[in-house]
C-alpha cells in the first residue's frame, strides 16, 4: 500500500474493514492508483437533464456500455451512475472498474424553486451489482432539505453496515440562496461540512467563487481575512472545512468548458489540497478518442507535484 | 431459443435467472413468439375512465373472462390488468397466458391538474396470481412525481428479487408540461430514459409528435438536426433514449383510432426499431371477431421485415 | 351446497380456501341461506352521526347486545359493526352470527368538503373477534381518495391472506362531484368498478338515480342508449359494472324511509340482478318487533322469483 | 370478587385475561375497591400547562414522588401520569398503586386552533414501568383528529395484546366546535361513543352542559325530549352513549373549583350512573392534608347509595 | 462511589443498569468526577452555523481531533458532537472520554421562522462509536414541535433499551414565542419540564431571564411572588421544574461572552442548584492554552461550595 493510500485510510479508521476495503479499491484503481487522488466518471445527466440534451452531442453515450468502456480505457478510479445504466453493464464489466450507484435522482420536467429529487435505487441494489459505494445528492439551501438529510442518513447507516463507501454530492441550491450564493465560498464550505458531519467518506461539490453569501459568515471571513482571491485558496478553505483535509473532497467541472479552463481548475484543485475531479459532460459529450486525450492530461496534472503546470 | 430472444435476454444479463425466465415467457408466447417483438392487451380503463365509458361499446368487456379469451385467441404475448380483473380469471386461465399485474391506478372522479394515482395491488398479489410481471404508471411532469418514483423503486426492488418482470407505463403529464408537450419528442424520450434508469425491463410510452417542449433540449435537437419529421425517426430516437435499444420499448395506441392509422403506427414502430404495441381500447371496444382481425393484421406487420407494408 | 352458493363461490375461485369458507359462511347463514342473496345489518351510525341521533329513536340500540339479537332473530346473513360494538358482544354471541368488522370510521364533528375517515380497527382485531370478514368505506370523488385506496389495499392483502372476506362500502362523495352526482348512475357504476378492481368480494353501494355526472361518460351512455329510467335497469348496470355480476353487489337503504319505498327498492334490486341489501337505520331505529316484521318482508321479497311482488 | 367488580368485568368478557386482570387490579384497589366505582389522580399538567402554573400553588407537586404518595395515602384507585413522572417513582412505589401511563401530550407554547399533541411514550414503556394501563387523549372536533384516532388505534391494539387497560381521554375541542359546544351534551355523548367504539375500556370525559351543538342532533334531542336539565340526567345520557353503561365512564373536574361544587358534581355523576372521577388540579394544587380531606369526602360520596348526600 | 454520584443515580433508579452505568461514567469522569456536577464540550456549530463562522477564529477547530484533545486535557466530563466529528476520532481516542452523539442537526441555509432540523445519526451509530449517550434538540414554541417530540420519543425508547443516556437540548424557539420569550423564565422552566416528562436523563437549556411570556403563567408567578430577580433564583426555579432537582439540568453559555460573565453565570448555576455547564464556542473559539485556563477556572467554581466566588 502506497503512503498516499495509507494516510487516507488512516483518517477513516473509525470505519469497519468493509468500508476501508472498498475505499482502498477506489483509491488503488486506475492511473491515479496509490496517489490518494482520484478522477471519477459520473453519468446521471440522462435523468437530470434528459437523454437528447445529454447524449446527442456524442450518440455513443446513449449506450450504457460506452461509459464503462470510457472509464476503463481512461484509467479512471471509478464510474458513478444510476440503477438502469449500471444494471445494463455490471455483469459484462464485472470486476473491471469500481462502481458507485447513485441512489437519488431529479428530473426537470416540472418547474420548481427547490429541487428535491427521489430515491431511485437502494443499498441492496448497490450490493447485488457489485458496487464499492453509493452516491446521494443533497441540496443545502432548499426548503425540504430535511427530507434529503434524513433519507441520506438512513442510506448511510445501511451502506456503512454493508461495507460500502458513501459519496455525497453536496450541491447548494434552492430558495434559501441567491443564484450567486450557490457557489459562494462560505456556502460551498458549509455544504462540505454538512456532508462530512453526516458521515460522507467522499464529498463532491462545486468549485467555489470568491462571493460570500451569509451575512454572519461574511463578517467573520472578512474580519479574519480568510484568503479567497484565487482558486487554490478557495479549494484550500473547502478542504479545511471538510475536517481539515481528513475527508476526501473532489470537485465537479459543471457544464461543458474550454479544455484549458478545465486544466487550470485541476491545477487549482491539486494545489489547494483537493483530492480530484468528477468529470461528466466534459468527457462523455465528445468522441472517445478526444475524451481519452483530455482525461489523460487531467490525470497527468494530478500526478504532478503541487505548483507545476 | 430464437436469435431474437437470445439477443433480447443478453441485454438483461445483469438480472437474476428468475427475471430472465419470466421475460423469456413473455417473449416466447403467442404469434410473435421468438421475434423479440410483442403485443400486449392492457385493460385498466374501467378504473381509469369508468366502466360504462370503457365497456359499454362492447359489453362483453364488462366480464373479466372476456379479456383473457381475447388475448389468448389473438395470440398476444400477454395481458396486463388490475387486481380485480386478474383475480377473477387467473385460476380459470392458469398457465394459458403471461399476465402482468398493474400495481397502481388512477380514477377521474376528482378534477386535478396533476394525476397521482394510488397503489392498488402488490408484488405479493402478482406472485399469488401467477403473473410474469408487474406494471406501474409514472407521470413525469407532475408535481408529485417523487411519490410515484419512490413507490415504483420499492416495488421494482421487490419484484426483481422475486424474479418478476417490471413494466413501466411512462406517460408524461401534469402541470409541468403543455398539452402538446405531453407527447413532445424530447419529453417522450425523457420519460423513456427515466423509466430505463429506474430499472424498467419493458417501457410503455406514447407515440411522440415532432414537437419539442423543453427550451434547453430544443436547442440541442435543432442544432444537431436530430431527425423528427416522420414517425419512424421519432420512434428511433425514443428507442435510442432507452439505452440505445437495450431496453424493450412498446407504444400505446391511445384513444380509439382508425384502423389504417393503427397499421401505419405499427409500421412506424417496427421500422424505427420499436418492440411492439400495447393495444387496449382499439381491441376490446369492438366485437371479438373484428378485434381478432385487427390484432392479426398488427401481428403480421410486426412479423414482416422492416420497410414492408 | 345449493346451486346459488356454488355459482357464487365459483366466481371467486381465484381466492384461497379460507376466503371461500368465510364467504360460504355468510351466504349459508340465516333465512336467505343458499339463495346467493343476502341482507346484512350494519351499525356504524353511532360513530358516523353520533349516538343520540342514531339510537335515541329506539334506545335499545344504545346497547351493543341489541344488534346481535336483532340480526340473529331476524335471520339475517350477518352483522357489520365497529370494534367497540363487536368487542362488547362477540364473546356472548360467539358462533351464532357471521360478523364483519368495519375497519375505518368517520365522524362529523368537524365540517369538511371531503370526508376521509380514519382506520379504527385492524385485520388482527377481526381475527381475534371471530369475524368472517372486514369492511372498509371508500369515498370516490374526494381529493384524498388515494389515502383511502392505499389503506384499503394494505388491509385487503392482509385480510385475504388470513382468509377473511373483504366488503367495501363504495360511497361516491366529495368535492369532485355535485350533490346529485353522488348517486348518479355513471358514478355509482364507477365506484362499484373501483371496489371490484381493488379486490372487494362484496360491494356495498347506494341505489343510483338516472342522473349522469361525468360529461365523457354521459356522451357514451346517451349515444348507446343505456337504459336507466327504472331502478331495475340501473341496478342491472351497476351489477354489470361489477364484473358482469361476478362480484356480489348489495345496496344500502340510506336514511329512514317509508316501508313501501323500501320494498319497492328491494324488488328493483332483486329484479336487476342485485344480491341484496344492507339495512341499518331502517331496522334498528324502530322497536324490535316492528323491525322483525320489516326484515321478514324484505327476506320474502328476496326469496321470491324475479318480477314478483 | 365483589358483585360490582364481577358485573363490570362481565361487560368486558370479549377481552383477554390479561386485560381483565389489570382492570380488576384497578377496580379492586383503594377505598373504592369492589364498588365498581373509581377515582383516579391524573398529573399531566406540567406538560399541558407548564410546571409553574401547575405546581407553584403547592410546590410539593414539583416532585414526582409527591403524587404517588398522595394517591396512595388517599386510597385512590390509580395514578395516571407521563413518562418522566412515572419513571421517577415507579421503582420506589412498585406494586403499591395501579399506574396508567399517558402516551400522548400537548403543550401550549405555540398558539393553534386545533390541538393535536404528540406521542410521548409507548406501550413498551408502560410494560417496563409495571403499569396496569395506558392513557391517550383524543380531541374530537379538530381537523386532524384522524391522526389521533389512527395513533390511538395502533396503541390500543398493542396494549390489549399485552394485557393492558386502555383509558381514553375524550375531550371535544377544535375548530369544528363552538366554545360552548366543547361541553355540549350531544358532543360529549358523541365523544364518549367514539372512544367506546374505538375499544376504550375506560372513558374519561368532561361533565356536559345542557347545550346542544350539532343541528341534526339537536332536532332529535328536542323532538324526543331527551332530559338534560340536571347533571344527573346528562351524566345518564353520556353513560348510555357509552354502550348503555357497559363501558366505564369517569368525569374530570376541570379547573380548580369550589369544593361544594365538586361534591355536587360527584353526586350527579354517581346518581346518573357514572363510574367516578378523575381529580387532578383540585387535589394536587392544595397541600396534602387538605387534599386528603377532599378526596376522602369524594370517596364517601361514591361509597354512598344513589340519591344520598 | 462518591455520595454525590450515589444520590444522582438514586434519582434514576427506574432505569436499567445499562443506563445507570453510562450515567455513572459521565459523572465519574474528569476533574468534576464524583461531585454530581458536570461540564460538557459540545461541538455542533459547524452544522448549525457553518464551518468558517465556527472554526476560523481558532482554525485548529476545523480538525475533529482537536475537540477530543481539548475535552480530555481540560478534564471535562464528556464531549458531545455530530456523527462525522465523532467517527473521525472515536477510534483514536477510544475509552479516553465519554462521548455523546447528537442525533439531530439544523443548518441555516434556508430562512425559516420555525426551525425543525433533521435526524442525522442513529442510536446504532452511538453504540458502534462507543458513546455513553445520545443528544437531541427540541424547539418548544415551533409549529412542528410534534415531529421533534415524536422523533425524540422513538430515539429515547431505543437508546434506553440499549443502556444509553439521553441528553435533551431543550431550546425554546419559534413563531409561538416572542424573541424575549425564548429565554423567559416560565418558558425555560416549561421546556425543562417537557424534556423531563419525555424521559430525558440530562437536560440542557439556556439561562433564563426574568421575563415572563405566557399570560396565564405570568399571573401565577406574580401572584405567588416566585423570586426571579437574580440568576440563582431563576436557576433554582428551572431545576425545581425538572422534577424538583431529580433530573440533571445543565446550562449553555450561548454566544461568545466576556469571561467574567461566564464565571458569574457558573456561580449562579452552582448556587441555584444547577448541575453544570455546556461550554462550546466560549472554549473552542480561542486557542487551546487560554481555553484550558478558562475551563479550569470554571471547574474550580463548580468544585467550590455554594455561595463562594
Shape of chain A: globular
Which band does the percent of strand residues of chain A land in?
A: 5-15%
Question: Order of strands across the biggest sheet of chain A?
Answer: 1-2-3-6-7-8-9-10
Number of strands of chain A: 10
Largest sheet of chain A: 8 strands, parallel, barrel
Unreliable sequence segments of chain A: none
**Class by helix and strand content of chain A?**
alpha/beta
Q: Estimate the helix proportion of chain A, in percent.
A: 40-55%
Keywords:
homopentamer; 309 residues; alpha/beta; two-stranded antiparallel sheet; 43% helix; globular
Overview of the structural elements:
5 copies of one chain form a homopentamer. In chain A, the strands form 2 sheets. In chain A, strands 1-2-3-6-7-8-9-10 form an 8-stranded parallel barrel, surrounded by 5 helices. In chain A, strands 4-5 form a two-stranded antiparallel sheet. In chain A, strand 2, helix 6 and strand 3 form a beta-alpha-beta unit. The mean pLDDT of chain A is 96. Chain A has 14 helices and 10 strands. Helix content of chain A is 43%, strand content 14%. The longest helix of chain A is centred in the middle third of the chain and has 17 residues, at 145-161. In chain A, helix 9 (185-197) packs parallel to helix 11 and helix 12 runs parallel beside helix 14 (288-303). Chain A is globular, with a radius of gyration of 18 Å. By secondary structure, the first copy, chain A, is α/β, with parallel strands linked by helices.
Amino acid at each position: 500500500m502506497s503512503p498516499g493510500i495509507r494516510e487516507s485510510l488512516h483518517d477513516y479508521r473509525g470505519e469497519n474493514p468493509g468500508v476501508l476495503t472498498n475505499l482502498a479499491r477506489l483509491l488503488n484503481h486506475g492511473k491515479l492508483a496509490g496517489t490518494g487522488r482520484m478522477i471519477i466518471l459520473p453519468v446521471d445527466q440522462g435523468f437530470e437533464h434528459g437523454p437528447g440534451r445529454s447524449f446527442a452531442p456524442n450518440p455513443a453515450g446513449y449506450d450504457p456500455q460506452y461509459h464503462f468502456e470510457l472509464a476503463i480505457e481512461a484509467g479512471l478510479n471509478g464510474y458513478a451512475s444510476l440503477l438502469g445504466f449500471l444494471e445494463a453493464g455490471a455483469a459484462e464489466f464485472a470486476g473491471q472498474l469500481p462502481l458507485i450507484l447513485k441512489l437519488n435522482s431529479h428530473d426537470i420536467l416540472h418547474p420548481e424553486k427547490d429541487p428535491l429529487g427521489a430515491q431511485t435505487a437502494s443499498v441492496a441494489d448497490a450490493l447485488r451489482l457489485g458496487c464499492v459505494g453509493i452516491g446521494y445528492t443533497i441540496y443545502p439551501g432548499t426548503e425540504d432539505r430535511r427530507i434529503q438529510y434524513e433519507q441520506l442518513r438512513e442510506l448511510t447507516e445501511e451502506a456503512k453496515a454493508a461495507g460500502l463507501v458513501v459519496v455525497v454530492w453536496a450541491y447548494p441550491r434552492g430558495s434559501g440562496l441567491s443564484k450567486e450564493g450557490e457557489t459562494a465560498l462560505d456556502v460551498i464550505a458549509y455544504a462540505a461540512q454538512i456532508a462530512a458531519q453526516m458521515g460522507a467518506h467522499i464529498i463532491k461539490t462545486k468549485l467555489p467563487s470568491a462571493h460570500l453569501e451569509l451575512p454572519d459568515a461574511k463578517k467573520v471571513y472578512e474580519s479574519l481575512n480568510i484568503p479567497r482571491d484565487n482558486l487554490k485558496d478557495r479549494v484550500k478553505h473547502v478542504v479545511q472545512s471538510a475536517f481539515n483535509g481528513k475527508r476526501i473532497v473532489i470537485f465537479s467541472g459543471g457544464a461543458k468548458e474550454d479544455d484549458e479552463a478545465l486544466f487550470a481548475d485541476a491545477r487549482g484543485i491539486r494545489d489547494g489540497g483537493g483530492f480530484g475531479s468528477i468529470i461528466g459532460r466534459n468527457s462523455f459529450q465528445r468522441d472517445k478518442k478526444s475524451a481519452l486525450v483530455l482525461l489523460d492530461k487531467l490525470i497527468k496534472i494530478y500526478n504532478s507535484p503541487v505548483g507545476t503546470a
